[in-house]
């Protein structure tokens, strides 16, 4: 499977709510593989389908040596919170302290349509919440307090990658999923 181009801040697909997966077929398995390979190549702790231009509720993660994916996630968050550095492959080289739930129970499906439950705390919980936010068109900078968000937006404006030409439009290998690359 080919490494995909990661969409950067400013690309409208990152602000669009992804559609639920309804077909658990070979194309979905190819999408999961593309996400895994692109995430590992970046490298990152997680990658959501919208970040490669596919508007489906799918993400992959690689935390503490554990590689996995979740489709159509539904989260149950702890009341207890954590505060820590968070970054994003769609906002390269930027890290800001972000509040998240300390623990999460995530329910969804694997690439074959089998039910999956993932329980995680700390970094895994942060990653699952971050990637699920991507599926809802939310970026981690949206979760920052007002002053920190102002600093983040300033850093984005000054970033070397800001204003870079968007990837060339091409037919996605996942075109049947709706929103293609």
Automatic annotation (TrEMBL):
Cofactor: Fe(2+)
An individual GO BP term: translation
Annotated positions binding Fe cation: 88, 130, 134
Cofactor-binding details, from the entry: Binds 1 Fe(2+) ion.
EC number: 3.5.1.88
Active site: 131
Catalytic activities: N-terminal N-formyl-L-methionyl-[peptide] + H2O = N-terminal L-methionyl-[peptide] + formate
Keywords linked to the UniProt accession: Hydrolase, Iron, Metal-binding, Protein biosynthesis
Function: Removes the formyl group from the N-terminal Met of newly synthesized proteins. Requires at least a dipeptide for an efficient rate of reaction. N-terminal L-methionine is a prerequisite for activity but the enzyme has broad specificity at other positions.
NCBIfam families: pept_deformyl, PRK00150.1-3
Family: Belongs to the polypeptide deformylase family.
Protein name: Peptide deformylase
Organism whose genome encodes this protein: Kineosporia babensis
Gene that this polypeptide is encoded by: def
């Amino acid at each position: 499977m080919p490494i995909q181009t990661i969409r950067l801040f400013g690309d409208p697909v990152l602000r669009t709510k992804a559609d639920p997966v309804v077909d658990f077929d070979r194309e979905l398995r190819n999408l999961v593989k593309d996400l895994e390979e692109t995430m590992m190549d970046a490298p990152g702790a997680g990658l959501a389908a919208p970040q490669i231009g596919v508007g489906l509720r799918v993400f992959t993660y690689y935390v503490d040596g554990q590689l996995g994916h979740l489709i159509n996630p539904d989260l149950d968050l702890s009341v207890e919170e954590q505060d820590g550095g968070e970054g994003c492959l769609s906002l390269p080289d930027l890290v800001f302290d972000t509040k998240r739930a300390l623990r999460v129970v995530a329910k969804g499906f694997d690439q074959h349509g089998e039910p999956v439950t993932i329980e995680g705390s700390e970094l895994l919980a942060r990653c699952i919440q971050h990637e699920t936010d991507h599926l809802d068109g939310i970026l981690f900078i949206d979760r920052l307090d007002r002053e920190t968000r102002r600093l983040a937006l300033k850093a984005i404006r000054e970033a070397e990658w800001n204003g870079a030409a968007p990837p060339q439009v091409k037919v996605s290998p996942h075109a049947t999923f709706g929103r293609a690359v």
